[in-house]
Amino acid sequence: MISNFIFWQENWSNVPLGNDERVALQEEISVLHGKIATLEEEFNRSRQEASDYRHLSHQLEKELKELRDHDQQSKTKRIKVLSDLLISVSKAERQEARMKIRQESLRLGNIGVVRAGTIISEGWEDGQALKDLNAHLRSLLEMKESIERHRKSLKKRQSDKGDGNDMETGISDEDFHVQDEIFKSRLASIKREEETYLKEKDRYELEKGRLIREMKRIRDEDGSRFNNFPILNQRYALLNLLGKGGFSEVYKAFDLVENRYVACKLHSLNGQWSEEKKQSYIRHAIREYNIHKTLVHPHIVRLWDIFEIDHNTFCTVLEYCSGKDLDAVLKATPMLPEREARIIIVQIFHGLIYLNKRPQRIIHYDLKPGNVLFDEVGVAKVTDFGLSKIVEDDVGSQGMELTSQGAGTYWYLPPECFELSKTPLISSKVDVWSAGVILYQMLFGRRPFGHDQTQERILREDTIINARKVEFPSKPSVSIEAKELIRRCLTYNQTERPDVLTIAQDPYLSYSKR
Ligand code: ATP
Ligand code: MG
Fold first, then answer.
1. Per the domain annotation, does 203 fall within a domain?
2. What is the CATH number of the domain that holds 430?
């Protein structure tokens, strides 16, 4: 535009104009000159300002980078300080746990070398407290036997006297009765003492069980390749081993990004496995992850993350539940008061109802006490969706085909899962049966079917196929409502057994509708 104006200015004198017009035009030109000068000035100022801004922006960028570096450094430093702290706490805990089992071993026993003839094997050797207790029980038994012998001979003397066989050794009736009463009262007192010792022995046996499990955990921790406090995926600081399952190790860990405790479940594939088997296992696990990650409910353990560690190992990151699992609870106290059992089964059912109200219904299929965890305030949560099934939309009320037969834990599986003649159709009724078994076990301290049997014997003897009717022990006394719910859950015939959403209406499972 400026160049147009200059061209016009140079050539305007050739344009034929009147005098007035020429003067007016000249004035306009000089105004325009002024404007040009101002514009040029502004332009230069803007250029200067732009250059100043550029400079400032460079400066700011530099400062920002320094700040970022600094932030990164302090973040790294913070992570380092935090993980060092966590590690030293864990190391102290490990030391304490080892010290504790050494002490307990003296009292309760240890795994030692047992020799039977020429065969040497590992076996349990009782500790001093158990030895003392058994010695007490033995001496009480000897005392009892000796008194019984005396009593027998006293009776013999009395009956001999009655027969008139032996008048010299005979005793008066009064003496006989007094003597017999002494023996009876002594026997009663021995029995009382024996009962106290037996109760104590039961308590020791429970403690012994806990000690053996803790020894196993420590042995597993010592043998684990993750026991050296690694930081996985640049954020999960592995701490102590919580336990080892069939195919996995579970570590307590700290998420350095979200600043919370988590449980890292390390799934290891056997190096000897064929590629095909590894692939199938990974497919299975990814499916578990895909199902589990979408579940958000107070009574379902959250799955936060999953990542690969190497070709043979991957890790799932779960909500950390600091309480025991229900299996450990029932090992410590096999029978729970009904009130406690009820609130636990109610929470399990709340989880199951959620699984059945989603658009994609889910059958857990491996519901058992070991898969019910408690958080720090005692809220029960269902976990381990490794065997769970998604119910496809086109499946009718009878359920879907169970393709992976033989998985799961037999005490808790319903009869239809043992039908070998045909592929069973499974539905949420499988979980209803398992929940019934769990409630029974919490109330009566034993499982309703095959309690004392091994998994192998349950299969061999068709224990569950024959589990047509549930029997209740007379003790402890349990409400009719609880028994009725158990009966409904343990309905033998799958078609007659209520599904999760039907049984959810049972009055025993509701606290408000009373
Ligand atoms: P299975 O192989 O049948 O699942 P399992 O349930 O004993 O056997 P894992 O699920 O691997 O094995 O669990 C091992 C241990 O880790 C158990 O003692 C369990 O209580 C504990 N554990 C598992 N998940 C968590 C969690 N989210 N928070 C706290 N502890 C957990
Ligand atoms: Mg488990």
1. yes
2. 1.10.510.10
The rounded distance, in Å, linking the Cα atoms of 77 and 137 is: 61
Q: Which ligand is nearest to the CA of 242?
A: 1
pLDDT digits (tens, 9 = 90+) for 81-96: 999 999 999 999 999 9
| Ligand 1 in reach of 263 Cβ (< 6 A) | yes
Both 335 and 373 in one domain: the answer is yes
Of the CA atoms within 13 Å of residue 282, those in its CB half-sphere come to 18
The reply to whether 41 falls in a domain is no
> What CA–CA distance (Å, rounded) separates 233 from 231?
7
pLDDT for res 464? 84
Quick check: 228 and 238 in contact, CB under 8 A? no
Q: Return the pLDDT at 401.
A: 39
242 ligand 1 Cβ < 6 A: yes
Closest C-alpha residue for ligand 1 atom 7: 245
- Where does the pLDDT of residue 171 fall: very low under 50, low under 70, confident under 90, or very high at 90 and above? confident
Probe target for ligand 1 pocket from 242, 267, 327, with the most ligand atoms within 8 Å of CB: 242
The pTM is what?
0.77
Closest ligand to 250 CA?
1
Residue 427 neighbours by CB under 8 Å, 6+ apart:
363, 391, 395, 397, 398, 399, 400, 494, 499
pLDDT tens string 234-251: 999 999 999 998 778 999
CA-closest residue to ligand 1 atom 1: 245
Q: Is residue 245 part of a domain?
A: yes
Whether 189 is in a domain gets the answer yes
The residue annotated as part of the active site, out of 305, 366, 431, 499, is: 366
CA–CA separation, 412 and 332 (whole Å): 20
Q: Is 366 tagged catalytic?
A: yes
Please give the average per-residue pLDDT across 105-129, as a whole number.
Answer: 84
Q: How confident is the model at residue 285 (pLDDT cuts 50, 70, 90)?
A: confident
Same domain, residue pair 267 and 342: no
Asked if residue 265 belongs to a known ligand binding site, the reply is yes
Ligand 1 pocket check for 245: Cβ under 6 Å: yes
Average pLDDT taken over every residue of the chain: 86
